[in-house]
Fold DNA glycosylase, predicted DNA alkylation repair enzyme.
Amino acid sequence: MRLQDELREILYDLRDEKFKIFSQKLISQPEILGVKTPILKKIAKDLARRVKSEDLVKFKPFFHEEFAVKGYLIMLLKDDEVKFQLASCFVKSMPNWAICDQFAKIKFKDVKFANLLLKQCRGSDLEYEKRFYYVFFMSGFLDESELDGFLRDCLNEKDDRYYVKMAMAWVIAEIFIKFRQSALRLLETKKLDKFVQNKTISKIRDSFRVEKCVKDELLGLKI
């Protein structure tokens, strides 16, 4: 049985109509069957024992859950080179922010493959592939020495699409919490996109990890 046929049969048996209706309000595309994330992860782990990389190449997801399981299967691969080849194609097919953000947790043993994927996504014209650049960086950066080039990218970003700008605001807010001075210097320039600047400040102010006096001072940096 083909991977897609086997997976769809499994997913159909696990559908939850109430969860489907709830989820479809948050994620408009593609169609959702209504299977929760922990179950999808378990399905992927079970399938990973016997699914080959050739099966993943042939697998063309249609439902949201199929995209999720394919992403998890790629993430579970041990061979960095094969994982990168499949990931570099998968990021072009991601249909929504949820699949993007789940897949952005992908790990490579060799950092060169992570850097190649970041470079590819940084130059993309696709909304979710570009979003992946920001979300993947947030989950993968290790120390302040990596931030200068990334923050310059944020400053120079001209992409006006909603999910790209939301990702930028999210990651800059996280950088502020971990490396305050680097992010603060960026915000003080007031040269970021207006939406990104103000949304970043809003996200920082929502955090329990930032003191109230600092949150109040940040209001003066809104555009």
Q: What stands out?
A: Residues 61 and 186 are 40 Å apart (CA to CA).
